[in-house]
Amino acid sequence: MPAQSRNSSGLDQFLASIQDRSGLTLLDLAGASQNNIDFLTALGHRVYSDDIVRTLDDAFGAGDFLENQSDAARAEFFLQQTLDFPEESFDGALLWDTLQFLAPPLLQLTVDRLYRILRPGAYLLAFFNSDEKLKTVPVSSYRIADRKTLLLAPRGQTRPAQFFNNRALEKMFQNFQSLKFFLTRDHLREVIVRR
Questions:
Q1: What 3-state class would DSSP assign to 7?
Q2: Which helix (H) or strand (E) holds 41?
Q3: Residue 165 has what pLDDT?
Q4: CATH number assigned to the domain comprising residue 100
Q5: Cβ 107 vs Cβ 101: under 8 Å
Q6: pLDDT digits (tens, 9 = 90+) for 39-54
Q7: What DSSP element (H or E) covers 39?
Q8: What is the pLDDT of residue 179?
Q9: Using an 8 Å Cβ cutoff, are 144 and 94 in contact?
C-alpha cells in the first residue's frame, strides 16, 4: 500500500518551535528516514534516529505483546535500546504514535525517561488514536514531506495498550510545562508537549 499524505498541525507547531534556532539536537523515533533527516538537517539541526516500533517488537514481540511489557528485564532492555542518553541531551523529540502501544507501567517509565533526556523548554510531538471503538489501530512510518504535511507508510495494525483522552494525557505529562492538543478528522489526537 502506498504512503498516504496528511496535514499535520502538530508537526507545523513543532517545527515553529525550532525554526528560529540552529544547531539543535533532535530525536526522531520513526526510524532512519532520509526525508526526515534531510528536512531537519536543512533547518540546521542534528538528528538522532531510532526505529522504536522495531525495538518494541524485539523487546516484547514473542508471546503476549502487552503482558510482556510488565517484565522488568524486557522493559529495561527496551529503555536501554531506545532512550539511553545522558540527561538533557535533546532539544526536541518526534515520538509519532508509539506511546499508545505502551502498557501503563512502561509508558510512565518511558515518559519519565523522555523528561530526563529533554532539555528544559524542549518540545515533543506525539500522536494518539482517539477512536475508542477500534480494536486495532494502524502502525505507520512517518515521513516529513513539508512543514505541514506528513507521508504515512503503513506498517500493519496492532492493538493499542490503552486509549487517551485529554485528561489522561495531561496526567501522563504532568511534570512537563504545557500541552497543546490538535484533534483531527481522522481520529488522530496530535499533542505538542513542552518540557
A1: strand
A2: helix 34-42
A3: 84
A4: 3.40.50.150
A5: no
A6: 999 999 999 999 888 8
A7: helix 34-42
A8: 94
A9: no
Q: Return the C-alpha cell found at 138.
A: 494502524
Residue written as grid cell 504515512: 152
Measure the CA–CA gap between 3 and 152, rounded to whole angstroms: 5
- Which H or E run contains 82? helix 72-83
The number of domains in the chain is 1
Are the C-beta atoms of 25 and 46 separated by less than 8 Å? Answer: yes
Q: Which of 103, 101, 123 is nearest to 173 (CA)?
A: 123
Domain range for 161: 4-194
pTM: predicted TM-score of the whole model, two decimal places? 0.91
Residues 6+ apart with CB under 8 A from 169: 128, 179, 181, 189, 191
Please enumerate in sequence order all residues whose Cβ is within 8 A of that of 163, keeping only pairs 6 or more positions apart, or say none: 100, 128, 129, 130, 131, 132
CA distance 9 to 123: 14
Strands 178-183 and 188-194 come out as antiparallel
What would the pLDDT profile of 115-153 be if each residue is shown by its tens digit?
999 999 999 999 988 777 778 887 888 999 999 999 998
What is the pLDDT, as a whole number, of residue 119? 97
Cα 164 to Cα 38, 50, 130, 133: the distances in Å are: 32, 24, 7, 12
Distance (Å, whole) CA 13 – CA 8 = 9
Contact 88, 24 (CB under 8 A): no
